[in-house]
């Protein structure tokens, strides 16, 4: 069975309902190399996962460069998205200006070995930039033929509605998974009403919903998960215990943990497109069974009992990590 094809926003290209997040290819979560990255991308193509998502800041261009080399060598038929607007610090800032976004986009296109991308996100929204002005900037990039459409990331519903009224938003990308449920407070519904794709990043809870949950001791020094509240004790142990119950449940169904967790996200609506990430083909292949899973009402009830809304201990970001994220509740 293959993943359902859905619109990437109303009138946008058809993409599989499961995408690939390429941040891990930059070594953000551990060492990798070009051969392993290429094998991972080969596995994505073989599994029908042809909607790929990256950003200029992933390894400061490394992820885009790896993808660009793969595209130049193998010419895959893919739908491609990238992002810009985060300016590394210290201090870290957000720049939504036309000059900045155009310059960063042009550099991304060179690294990716393409003339345009299908989707270009403002990686974060600067509160000093009215959403209407940001939408006008993105429309200029569309008119210039550099992007097929634009998206917003880690934003509140009000920002989306205001930008969309000026120039239609193709996609909104926010964190969403069984342990990060904030988008259910209006954002997913708004996207459905407006015909916007909701692209769910970290749908496997940053490595927790795997056959073995990631452990803080196995994270490299300096990695942002080491200071993420959900991975710090005692929160980590509480979270692991809850997810272990879900792991046993998924295995009892004959499913991988990743496939079951992704099936839950896919069930939230046809406009919801999760983009898990990995740096190995083995982990990617654990996702593929999600295409064969149709969760019943009983399945959903059992999942809700195992992992009720709000089960996660600790915020999804530390205060410093959340500094550029729009909060709306």
UniProtKB/TrEMBL annotation:
Residues folding into a coiled coil are none
Instruction: Decide whether keyword Oxidoreductase is in the record.
Output: yes
Keyword Oxidoreductase listed: yes
Its Gene Ontology cellular component terms are: cytoplasm
Matching entries from SUPFAM superfamilies are given as: NAD(P)-linked oxidoreductase
A single Gene Ontology MF term assigned here is:
oxidoreductase activity
* InterPro entries associated with the record: AKR (IPR020471), Aldo-Keto_reductase (IPR050791), NAD(P)_OxRdtase_dom_sf (IPR036812), NADP_OxRdtase_dom (IPR023210)
Q: Which UniProt keywords apply?
A: Oxidoreductase
Query: What range(s) does the NADP-dependent oxidoreductase domain occupy?
Result: 18-306
What name is this protein filed under?
A: Aldo/keto reductase
Q: This protein's superkingdom?
A: Bacteria
């Amino acid at each position: 069975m293959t993943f359902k094809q859905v619109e990437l926003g109303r009138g946008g290209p058809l993409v599989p309902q499961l995408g690939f997040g390429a941040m891990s290819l930059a070594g953000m979560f551990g060492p990798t190399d070009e051969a392993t990255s290429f094998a991972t991308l080969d596995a994505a193509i073989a599994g029908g996962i042809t909607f790929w998502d990256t950003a200029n800041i992933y390894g400061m261009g490394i992820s885009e460069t790896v993808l660009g080399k793969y595209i130049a060598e193998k010419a895959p038929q893919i739908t491609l998205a990238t992002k810009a607007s985060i300016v590394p610090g210290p201090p870290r800032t957000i720049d939504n200006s036309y000059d900045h976004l155009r310059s960063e986009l042009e550099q991304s296109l060179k690294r990716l070995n393409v003339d345009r991308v299908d989707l270009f996100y403002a990686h974060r929204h600067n509160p000093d930039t009215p959403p209407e002005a940001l939408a006008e900037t993105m429309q200029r990039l569309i008119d210039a033929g550099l992007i097929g459409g634009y998206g917003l990331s880690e934003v509140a519903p009000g920002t989306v509605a205001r930008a969309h009224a000026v120039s239609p938003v193709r996609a909104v990308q926010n964190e969403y998974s069984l342990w990060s449920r904030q988008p259910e407070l209006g954002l997913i519904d708004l996207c459905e009403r407006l015909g916007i794709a909701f692209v769910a990043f970290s749908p496997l809870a940053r490595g927790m919903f795997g056959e073995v949950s990631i452990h803080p001791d196995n994270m490299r020094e300096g990695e942002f998960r080491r200071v993420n509240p959900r991975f710090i004790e005692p929160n980590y142990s509480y979270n692991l215990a809850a997810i272990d119950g879900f792991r046993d449940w998924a295995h009892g169904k004959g499913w991988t943990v990743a496939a079951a967790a992704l099936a839950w996200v896919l069930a939230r609506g046809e406009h919801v497109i999760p983009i898990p990430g990995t740096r190995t083909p083995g982990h990617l292949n654990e996702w593929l069974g999600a295409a064969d899973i149709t969760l019943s009402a009983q399945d959903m009830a059992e999942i809700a009992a195992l992992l009720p809304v709000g089960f996660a201990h600790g915020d999804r970001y530390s205060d410093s990590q959340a500094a550029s994220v729009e909060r709306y509740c």
